[in-house]
Protein backbone atom coordinates (compact mmCIF):
# COMPACT_ATOMS: atom_id res chain seq x y z
CA UNK A 1 0.00 0.00 0.00
CA UNK A 2 1.20 3.54 -0.82
CA UNK A 3 1.50 6.45 1.56
CA UNK A 4 -0.12 9.58 0.19
CA UNK A 5 3.28 11.32 -0.03
CA UNK A 6 4.71 8.40 -2.03
CA UNK A 7 2.14 8.52 -4.82
CA UNK A 8 3.74 11.35 -6.82
CA UNK A 9 7.24 9.93 -6.30
CA UNK A 10 6.19 6.41 -7.38
CA UNK A 11 4.32 7.60 -10.45
CA UNK A 12 7.14 9.88 -11.63
CA UNK A 13 9.71 7.13 -11.03
CA UNK A 14 7.70 4.71 -13.14
CA UNK A 15 7.33 7.33 -15.87
CA UNK A 16 11.03 8.23 -15.87
CA UNK A 17 12.13 4.58 -15.83
CA UNK A 18 9.94 3.91 -18.88
CA UNK A 19 7.65 1.46 -17.06
CA UNK A 20 4.76 3.81 -17.81
CA UNK A 21 4.55 5.37 -21.28
CA UNK A 22 1.86 7.48 -22.86
CA UNK A 23 -0.11 6.13 -25.78
CA UNK A 24 0.40 7.99 -29.04
CA UNK A 25 -2.23 10.17 -30.69
CA UNK A 26 -2.41 7.56 -33.47
CA UNK A 27 -3.45 4.93 -30.90
CA UNK A 28 -6.50 7.01 -29.95
CA UNK A 29 -7.24 7.91 -33.56
CA UNK A 30 -7.31 4.19 -34.44
CA UNK A 31 -9.62 3.46 -31.50
CA UNK A 32 -12.03 6.20 -32.53
CA UNK A 33 -11.88 5.05 -36.16
CA UNK A 34 -12.57 1.48 -35.01
CA UNK A 35 -15.61 2.60 -33.00
CA UNK A 36 -16.92 4.63 -35.94
CA UNK A 37 -16.37 1.68 -38.30
CA UNK A 38 -18.22 -0.63 -35.90
CA UNK A 39 -21.13 1.84 -35.65
CA UNK A 40 -21.24 2.22 -39.45
CA UNK A 41 -21.15 -1.57 -39.94
CA UNK A 42 -23.91 -2.15 -37.40
CA UNK A 43 -26.02 0.63 -38.97
CA UNK A 44 -25.51 -0.89 -42.42
CA UNK A 45 -26.51 -4.35 -41.14
CA UNK A 46 -29.66 -2.96 -39.47
CA UNK A 47 -30.50 -1.09 -42.68
CA UNK A 48 -29.97 -4.28 -44.70
CA UNK A 49 -32.16 -6.35 -42.38
CA UNK A 50 -34.81 -3.62 -42.33
CA UNK A 51 -34.71 -3.26 -46.12
CA UNK A 52 -35.20 -7.01 -46.50
CA UNK A 53 -38.12 -6.79 -44.07
CA UNK A 54 -39.79 -3.94 -45.99
CA UNK A 55 -39.16 -5.55 -49.36
CA UNK A 56 -40.20 -9.09 -48.38
CA UNK A 57 -43.41 -7.97 -46.70
CA UNK A 58 -44.30 -6.08 -49.87
CA UNK A 59 -43.08 -8.79 -52.26
CA UNK A 60 -44.89 -11.61 -50.47
CA UNK A 61 -48.07 -9.55 -50.09
CA UNK A 62 -48.07 -10.05 -46.33
CA UNK A 63 -48.64 -6.34 -45.76
CA UNK A 64 -52.12 -6.89 -47.26
CA UNK A 65 -53.02 -8.83 -44.11
CA UNK A 66 -53.04 -5.55 -42.21
CA UNK A 67 -56.16 -4.57 -44.17
CA UNK A 68 -58.03 -7.77 -43.25
CA UNK A 69 -59.11 -6.75 -39.74
CA UNK A 70 -58.07 -8.26 -36.42
CA UNK A 71 -57.48 -11.75 -37.79
CA UNK A 72 -55.32 -10.34 -40.55
CA UNK A 73 -53.20 -8.40 -38.08
CA UNK A 74 -52.86 -11.48 -35.90
CA UNK A 75 -51.76 -13.58 -38.90
CA UNK A 76 -49.36 -10.80 -39.95
CA UNK A 77 -47.70 -10.90 -36.51
CA UNK A 78 -47.05 -14.60 -37.12
CA UNK A 79 -45.02 -13.68 -40.19
CA UNK A 80 -42.76 -11.22 -38.39
CA UNK A 81 -39.16 -12.45 -38.63
CA UNK A 82 -38.33 -12.43 -34.92
CA UNK A 83 -34.74 -13.57 -35.52
CA UNK A 84 -34.19 -10.49 -37.67
CA UNK A 85 -35.73 -8.25 -35.02
CA UNK A 86 -33.54 -9.77 -32.30
CA UNK A 87 -30.50 -9.14 -34.52
CA UNK A 88 -31.63 -5.53 -34.98
CA UNK A 89 -31.99 -5.14 -31.19
CA UNK A 90 -28.46 -6.55 -30.68
CA UNK A 91 -26.99 -4.17 -33.27
CA UNK A 92 -28.89 -1.19 -31.82
CA UNK A 93 -27.51 -2.03 -28.36
CA UNK A 94 -24.02 -2.35 -29.85
CA UNK A 95 -24.32 1.06 -31.51
CA UNK A 96 -25.73 2.54 -28.30
CA UNK A 97 -22.75 1.22 -26.31
CA UNK A 98 -20.25 2.58 -28.82
CA UNK A 99 -21.99 5.96 -28.94
CA UNK A 100 -21.79 6.27 -25.14
CA UNK A 101 -18.03 6.71 -25.59
CA UNK A 102 -18.67 10.01 -27.32
CA UNK A 103 -20.06 13.18 -25.75
CA UNK A 104 -22.87 13.33 -28.31
CA UNK A 105 -23.87 9.78 -27.32
CA UNK A 106 -23.91 9.99 -23.54
CA UNK A 107 -25.35 13.50 -23.41
CA UNK A 108 -28.60 12.19 -25.02
CA UNK A 109 -31.05 10.09 -23.01
CA UNK A 110 -30.80 6.41 -23.99
CA UNK A 111 -34.37 6.34 -25.25
CA UNK A 112 -33.69 9.24 -27.64
CA UNK A 113 -30.44 7.66 -28.78
CA UNK A 114 -32.08 4.29 -29.50
CA UNK A 115 -35.06 5.95 -31.22
CA UNK A 116 -32.68 8.01 -33.38
CA UNK A 117 -30.60 4.94 -34.30
CA UNK A 118 -33.73 2.95 -35.21
CA UNK A 119 -35.26 5.83 -37.18
CA UNK A 120 -32.04 6.46 -39.11
CA UNK A 121 -31.39 2.82 -39.93
CA UNK A 122 -35.03 2.06 -40.79
CA UNK A 123 -35.22 5.12 -43.05
CA UNK A 124 -32.05 3.92 -44.76
CA UNK A 125 -33.53 0.42 -44.93
CA UNK A 126 -36.69 1.73 -46.56
CA UNK A 127 -34.65 3.54 -49.21
CA UNK A 128 -32.59 0.40 -49.86
CA UNK A 129 -35.81 -1.63 -50.18
CA UNK A 130 -36.78 0.56 -53.14
CA UNK A 131 -33.54 -0.21 -54.99
CA UNK A 132 -33.06 -3.28 -57.27
CA UNK A 133 -30.81 -4.92 -54.62
CA UNK A 134 -33.30 -7.45 -53.26
CA UNK A 135 -34.91 -8.38 -56.63
CA UNK A 136 -31.40 -9.11 -57.93
CA UNK A 137 -30.58 -11.21 -54.87
CA UNK A 138 -33.93 -12.98 -55.28
CA UNK A 139 -33.02 -13.90 -58.85
CA UNK A 140 -29.69 -15.30 -57.69
CA UNK A 141 -31.44 -17.24 -54.92
CA UNK A 142 -33.91 -18.66 -57.46
CA UNK A 143 -30.92 -19.90 -59.49
CA UNK A 144 -29.41 -21.39 -56.32
CA UNK A 145 -26.44 -19.02 -56.55
CA UNK A 146 -26.89 -17.14 -53.29
CA UNK A 147 -25.01 -18.72 -50.39
CA UNK A 148 -25.82 -18.13 -46.69
CA UNK A 149 -28.95 -15.96 -47.13
CA UNK A 150 -30.43 -17.71 -50.16
CA UNK A 151 -32.89 -19.60 -47.98
CA UNK A 152 -34.39 -16.32 -46.77
CA UNK A 153 -35.28 -15.41 -50.35
CA UNK A 154 -36.42 -18.93 -51.23
CA UNK A 155 -38.73 -18.87 -48.21
CA UNK A 156 -40.62 -16.00 -49.85
CA UNK A 157 -41.63 -18.40 -52.64
CA UNK A 158 -42.70 -21.13 -50.27
CA UNK A 159 -46.42 -21.80 -49.95
CA UNK A 160 -47.97 -20.39 -46.78
CA UNK A 161 -51.22 -22.34 -47.06
CA UNK A 162 -50.69 -24.09 -43.73
CA UNK A 163 -50.59 -20.61 -42.16
CA UNK A 164 -53.88 -19.60 -43.75
CA UNK A 165 -52.45 -17.53 -46.62
CA UNK A 166 -53.00 -18.37 -50.31
CA UNK A 167 -51.43 -16.68 -53.32
CA UNK A 168 -52.59 -17.77 -56.72
CA UNK A 169 -54.53 -17.23 -59.92
CA UNK A 170 -58.30 -17.29 -60.39
CA UNK A 171 -59.15 -20.21 -62.70
CA UNK A 172 -62.96 -20.21 -62.52
CA UNK A 173 -65.71 -18.08 -61.01
CA UNK A 174 -68.95 -19.57 -59.67
CA UNK A 175 -72.00 -18.24 -57.84
CA UNK A 176 -70.71 -19.04 -54.34
CA UNK A 177 -67.04 -18.35 -54.92
CA UNK A 178 -64.16 -19.02 -57.23
CA UNK A 179 -61.31 -21.44 -57.86
CA UNK A 180 -57.80 -20.37 -57.00
CA UNK A 181 -54.69 -22.18 -58.32
CA UNK A 182 -51.88 -21.53 -55.88
CA UNK A 183 -48.64 -21.48 -57.82
CA UNK A 184 -46.45 -19.09 -55.89
CA UNK A 185 -44.64 -18.08 -59.09
CA UNK A 186 -41.98 -20.71 -58.64
CA UNK A 187 -41.00 -23.93 -60.36
CA UNK A 188 -41.87 -26.25 -57.48
CA UNK A 189 -44.62 -28.76 -57.92
CA UNK A 190 -46.61 -27.25 -55.08
CA UNK A 191 -49.59 -26.06 -57.11
CA UNK A 192 -52.94 -26.84 -55.63
CA UNK A 193 -56.37 -25.54 -56.51
CA UNK A 194 -58.78 -24.39 -53.81
CA UNK A 195 -62.40 -23.41 -53.92
CA UNK A 196 -62.60 -20.05 -52.16
CA UNK A 197 -65.72 -18.83 -50.37
CA UNK A 198 -65.36 -15.03 -50.14
CA UNK A 199 -66.27 -13.10 -46.99
CA UNK A 200 -69.75 -11.61 -46.86
CA UNK A 201 -70.00 -8.37 -48.78
CA UNK A 202 -67.19 -9.26 -51.18
CA UNK A 203 -68.11 -8.50 -54.79
CA UNK A 204 -67.08 -11.70 -56.62
CA UNK A 205 -68.33 -10.17 -59.88
CA UNK A 206 -65.34 -7.86 -59.81
CA UNK A 207 -62.99 -10.82 -60.28
CA UNK A 208 -61.88 -12.20 -63.61
CA UNK A 209 -60.19 -15.41 -64.63
CA UNK A 210 -56.42 -15.07 -64.68
CA UNK A 211 -56.34 -12.47 -61.91
CA UNK A 212 -53.73 -13.00 -59.21
CA UNK A 213 -55.09 -12.82 -55.68
CA UNK A 214 -53.91 -12.84 -52.11
CA UNK A 215 -56.39 -14.71 -49.93
CA UNK A 216 -56.38 -15.17 -46.17
CA UNK A 217 -58.71 -17.76 -44.68
CA UNK A 218 -59.27 -21.19 -43.16
CA UNK A 219 -58.73 -24.18 -45.43
CA UNK A 220 -60.54 -27.50 -45.03
CA UNK A 221 -60.94 -30.26 -47.63
CA UNK A 222 -59.85 -28.07 -50.52
CA UNK A 223 -62.14 -25.20 -49.61
CA UNK A 224 -60.98 -21.90 -48.19
CA UNK A 225 -63.39 -19.83 -46.15
CA UNK A 226 -61.78 -16.43 -46.73
CA UNK A 227 -61.82 -13.48 -44.37
CA UNK A 228 -59.76 -11.29 -46.68
CA UNK A 229 -59.11 -11.10 -50.43
CA UNK A 230 -56.94 -8.61 -52.26
CA UNK A 231 -55.60 -8.47 -55.86
CA UNK A 232 -51.84 -8.90 -56.22
CA UNK B 1 8.32 26.15 -0.27
CA UNK B 2 7.59 26.60 -3.95
CA UNK B 3 5.53 29.57 -5.17
CA UNK B 4 2.05 28.82 -6.52
CA UNK B 5 2.09 27.70 -10.14
CA UNK B 6 -0.22 30.03 -12.04
CA UNK B 7 -0.48 27.88 -15.13
CA UNK B 8 -3.92 26.35 -15.73
CA UNK B 9 -4.50 22.60 -15.56
CA UNK B 10 -5.06 22.59 -19.30
CA UNK B 11 -1.77 24.41 -19.97
CA UNK B 12 0.03 21.89 -17.80
CA UNK B 13 -1.68 19.01 -19.60
CA UNK B 14 -0.53 20.45 -22.94
CA UNK B 15 3.04 20.53 -21.59
CA UNK B 16 2.73 16.89 -20.47
CA UNK B 17 1.60 16.00 -23.98
CA UNK B 18 4.87 17.58 -25.11
CA UNK B 19 6.70 15.16 -22.77
CA UNK B 20 7.17 17.54 -19.84
CA UNK B 21 7.07 15.15 -16.87
CA UNK B 22 7.49 17.90 -14.27
CA UNK B 23 4.23 19.44 -15.44
CA UNK B 24 2.58 16.12 -14.67
CA UNK B 25 4.05 16.35 -11.17
CA UNK B 26 2.34 19.74 -10.71
CA UNK B 27 -0.98 18.25 -11.85
CA UNK B 28 -0.52 15.41 -9.37
CA UNK B 29 0.14 17.91 -6.57
CA UNK B 30 -3.09 19.69 -7.44
CA UNK B 31 -5.30 16.67 -7.87
CA UNK B 32 -4.02 14.11 -5.38
CA UNK B 33 -5.86 15.67 -2.38
CA UNK B 34 -9.04 16.09 -4.47
CA UNK B 35 -8.99 12.52 -5.77
CA UNK B 36 -8.19 11.11 -2.31
CA UNK B 37 -11.17 13.01 -0.90
CA UNK B 38 -13.42 11.97 -3.80
CA UNK B 39 -12.38 8.33 -3.36
CA UNK B 40 -12.99 8.40 0.39
CA UNK B 41 -16.47 9.88 -0.13
CA UNK B 42 -17.35 7.59 -3.03
CA UNK B 43 -16.07 4.34 -1.54
CA UNK B 44 -16.97 5.26 2.02
CA UNK B 45 -13.66 3.84 3.23
CA UNK B 46 -9.99 4.72 3.65
CA UNK B 47 -8.79 1.28 2.46
CA UNK B 48 -6.57 1.17 -0.62
CA UNK B 49 -7.50 4.71 -1.72
CA UNK B 50 -3.81 5.56 -2.25
CA UNK B 51 -3.31 2.57 -4.55
CA UNK B 52 -6.38 3.44 -6.59
CA UNK B 53 -5.35 7.11 -6.86
CA UNK B 54 -1.87 6.07 -7.99
CA UNK B 55 -3.49 3.93 -10.71
CA UNK B 56 -5.64 6.91 -11.70
CA UNK B 57 -2.52 9.04 -12.28
CA UNK B 58 -0.83 6.25 -14.23
CA UNK B 59 -3.91 5.86 -16.44
CA UNK B 60 -4.12 9.63 -16.86
CA UNK B 61 -0.50 9.77 -18.01
CA UNK B 62 -0.93 6.83 -20.40
CA UNK B 63 -4.05 8.37 -21.94
CA UNK B 64 -3.11 12.03 -21.82
CA UNK B 65 -2.89 12.28 -25.61
CA UNK B 66 -6.63 11.60 -25.62
CA UNK B 67 -7.22 14.75 -23.56
CA UNK B 68 -8.48 17.72 -25.56
CA UNK B 69 -6.66 20.73 -24.08
CA UNK B 70 -9.47 23.06 -25.23
CA UNK B 71 -11.72 21.36 -22.65
CA UNK B 72 -11.47 21.37 -18.85
CA UNK B 73 -9.01 18.98 -17.24
CA UNK B 74 -10.93 18.27 -14.02
CA UNK B 75 -13.91 16.34 -15.54
CA UNK B 76 -11.42 14.34 -17.60
CA UNK B 77 -9.37 13.14 -14.63
CA UNK B 78 -12.46 12.68 -12.47
CA UNK B 79 -13.83 10.41 -15.24
CA UNK B 80 -10.72 8.21 -14.96
CA UNK B 81 -11.07 8.26 -11.18
CA UNK B 82 -14.78 7.39 -11.42
CA UNK B 83 -13.96 4.29 -13.49
CA UNK B 84 -11.19 3.28 -11.10
CA UNK B 85 -13.40 3.66 -8.03
CA UNK B 86 -16.27 1.77 -9.69
CA UNK B 87 -13.82 -1.06 -10.38
CA UNK B 88 -12.64 -0.93 -6.77
CA UNK B 89 -16.26 -1.24 -5.62
CA UNK B 90 -16.81 -4.18 -7.96
CA UNK B 91 -13.71 -5.97 -6.70
CA UNK B 92 -14.82 -5.62 -3.12
CA UNK B 93 -18.41 -6.49 -4.11
CA UNK B 94 -19.66 -3.95 -1.64
CA UNK B 95 -22.81 -2.06 -2.56
CA UNK B 96 -22.27 -2.60 -6.28
CA UNK B 97 -23.59 0.20 -8.47
CA UNK B 98 -26.66 -0.41 -10.57
CA UNK B 99 -25.37 -0.23 -14.12
CA UNK B 100 -28.77 -0.09 -15.84
CA UNK B 101 -29.35 3.56 -15.04
CA UNK B 102 -33.08 4.18 -15.45
CA UNK B 103 -32.58 7.92 -15.00
CA UNK B 104 -30.39 7.98 -18.12
CA UNK B 105 -33.08 6.37 -20.29
CA UNK B 106 -35.57 9.22 -20.50
CA UNK B 107 -35.03 12.99 -20.68
CA UNK B 108 -35.06 15.13 -17.54
CA UNK B 109 -34.69 18.87 -17.23
CA UNK B 110 -31.54 20.07 -15.47
CA UNK B 111 -32.35 22.42 -12.58
CA UNK B 112 -29.08 23.95 -11.40
CA UNK B 113 -30.65 26.84 -9.52
CA UNK B 114 -29.35 26.40 -5.97
CA UNK B 115 -28.02 29.63 -4.52
CA UNK B 116 -24.46 29.87 -3.20
CA UNK B 117 -25.78 30.12 0.37
CA UNK B 118 -27.97 27.03 -0.06
CA UNK B 119 -25.06 25.14 -1.56
CA UNK B 120 -22.81 26.12 1.35
CA UNK B 121 -25.48 25.02 3.84
CA UNK B 122 -25.88 21.71 2.00
CA UNK B 123 -22.12 21.26 2.00
CA UNK B 124 -22.06 21.27 5.80
CA UNK B 125 -24.97 18.82 5.98
CA UNK B 126 -23.41 16.58 3.36
CA UNK B 127 -20.18 16.27 5.36
CA UNK B 128 -22.16 14.65 8.17
CA UNK B 129 -24.56 12.47 6.21
CA UNK B 130 -22.79 11.32 3.06
CA UNK B 131 -21.61 8.05 4.58
CA UNK B 132 -25.21 6.90 4.97
CA UNK B 133 -25.97 7.06 1.25
CA UNK B 134 -25.60 4.42 -1.46
CA UNK B 135 -22.43 4.71 -3.63
CA UNK B 136 -24.30 6.23 -6.61
CA UNK B 137 -25.78 8.98 -4.41
CA UNK B 138 -22.53 9.42 -2.42
CA UNK B 139 -20.66 9.99 -5.66
CA UNK B 140 -22.95 12.61 -7.15
CA UNK B 141 -23.22 14.47 -3.83
CA UNK B 142 -19.43 14.44 -3.50
CA UNK B 143 -18.87 15.68 -7.05
CA UNK B 144 -21.37 18.52 -6.74
CA UNK B 145 -21.03 19.76 -3.17
CA UNK B 146 -17.52 18.75 -2.19
CA UNK B 147 -15.59 18.74 -5.48
CA UNK B 148 -17.74 21.64 -6.74
CA UNK B 149 -18.18 20.41 -10.28
CA UNK B 150 -21.02 21.83 -12.36
CA UNK B 151 -23.83 19.72 -13.85
CA UNK B 152 -22.21 19.57 -17.30
CA UNK B 153 -18.89 18.53 -15.80
CA UNK B 154 -20.54 15.83 -13.68
CA UNK B 155 -22.34 14.64 -16.84
CA UNK B 156 -18.90 14.29 -18.46
CA UNK B 157 -17.56 12.38 -15.45
CA UNK B 158 -20.47 9.95 -15.22
CA UNK B 159 -21.22 9.81 -18.98
CA UNK B 160 -24.90 10.56 -18.43
CA UNK B 161 -27.17 13.33 -19.77
CA UNK B 162 -27.06 16.63 -17.86
CA UNK B 163 -30.73 16.22 -16.90
CA UNK B 164 -29.90 12.88 -15.30
CA UNK B 165 -27.37 14.63 -13.07
CA UNK B 166 -30.12 16.97 -11.86
CA UNK B 167 -32.63 14.23 -11.10
CA UNK B 168 -30.06 11.99 -9.43
CA UNK B 169 -28.80 14.86 -7.30
CA UNK B 170 -32.39 15.65 -6.26
CA UNK B 171 -32.93 12.02 -5.25
CA UNK B 172 -29.61 11.98 -3.38
CA UNK B 173 -30.64 15.10 -1.44
CA UNK B 174 -33.99 13.51 -0.60
CA UNK B 175 -32.24 10.32 0.57
CA UNK B 176 -29.84 12.41 2.65
CA UNK B 177 -32.74 14.31 4.21
CA UNK B 178 -34.50 11.05 5.06
CA UNK B 179 -31.39 9.67 6.76
CA UNK B 180 -30.73 12.86 8.68
CA UNK B 181 -34.34 13.22 9.82
CA UNK B 182 -34.16 9.69 11.21
CA UNK B 183 -30.98 10.69 13.06
CA UNK B 184 -31.85 12.18 16.50
CA UNK B 185 -28.63 14.22 16.45
CA UNK B 186 -29.86 16.02 13.34
CA UNK B 187 -30.20 19.75 13.92
CA UNK B 188 -30.16 21.20 10.46
CA UNK B 189 -32.81 22.21 7.95
CA UNK B 190 -32.73 20.60 4.55
CA UNK B 191 -34.56 21.62 1.45
CA UNK B 192 -34.26 18.92 -1.20
Which short descriptors sum up this protein?
A: 232 residues, alpha+beta, OB fold (Dihydrolipoamide Acetyltransferase, E2P), 8 helices, 5 strands, 16% strand, B: 192 residues, mainly alpha, Arc Repressor Mutant, subunit A
Summarize the structure.
The complex is a heterodimer of chains A (232) and B (192). Chain A is α+β, with helices and mostly antiparallel strands and 232 residues long. Chain A folds into two domains: 25-155, no CATH class; 160-231, Beta Barrel (OB fold (Dihydrolipoamide Acetyltransferase, E2P)).
Note down, in words, how this protein is organized.
The complex is a heterodimer of chains A (232) and B (192). By secondary structure, chain A is an alpha+beta fold. Chain A has two domains: 25-155, no CATH class; 160-231, Nucleic acid-binding proteins (OB fold (Dihydrolipoamide Acetyltransferase, E2P), Beta Barrel). Chain A has helices at residues 4-16, 25-60, 69-79, 82-99, 103-106, 110-129, 133-142, 150-157; strands at 165-173, 178-182, 192-197, 212-220, 223-231. In chain A, α2 (25-60) runs antiparallel to α4 (82-99) and α7 crosses α8 (150-157). Chain B is mainly alpha-helical. Chain B has helices at 9-17, 21-43, 49-62, 73-92, 116-129, 135-146, 151-158, 162-182.
Show the helix and strand layout.
The complex is a heterodimer of chains A (232) and B (192).
Chain A: H1 4-16, H2 25-60, H3 69-79, H4 82-99, H5 103-106, H6 110-129, H7 133-142, H8 150-157, E1 165-173, E2 178-182, E3 192-197, E4 212-220, E5 223-231
Parallel strand pairs in A: 3-5
Antiparallel strand pairs in A: 1-2, 1-4, 2-3, 4-5
Helix pairs in contact in A: 2-4, 2-6, 4-6, 7-8
Chain B: H1 9-17, H2 21-43, H3 49-62, H4 73-92, H5 116-129, H6 135-146, H7 151-158, H8 162-182
Helix pairs in contact in B: 1-2, 2-3, 2-4, 2-6, 3-4, 4-7, 5-6, 6-8, 7-8
Amino acid sequence: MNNPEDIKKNVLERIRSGQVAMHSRAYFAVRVAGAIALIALALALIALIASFGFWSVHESGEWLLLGFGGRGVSTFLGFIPWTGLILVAVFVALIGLQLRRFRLGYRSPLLFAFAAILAASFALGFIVSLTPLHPLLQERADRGELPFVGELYEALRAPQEDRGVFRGTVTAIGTDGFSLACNDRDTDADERTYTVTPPSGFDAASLHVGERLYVAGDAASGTVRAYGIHPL
Amino acid sequence: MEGADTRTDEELAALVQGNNQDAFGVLMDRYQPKLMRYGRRFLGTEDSIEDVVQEVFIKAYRNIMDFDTTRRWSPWIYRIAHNAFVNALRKKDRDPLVFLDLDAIVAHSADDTESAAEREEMRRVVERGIGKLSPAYREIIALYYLEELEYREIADVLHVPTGTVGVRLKRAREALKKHLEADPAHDSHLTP
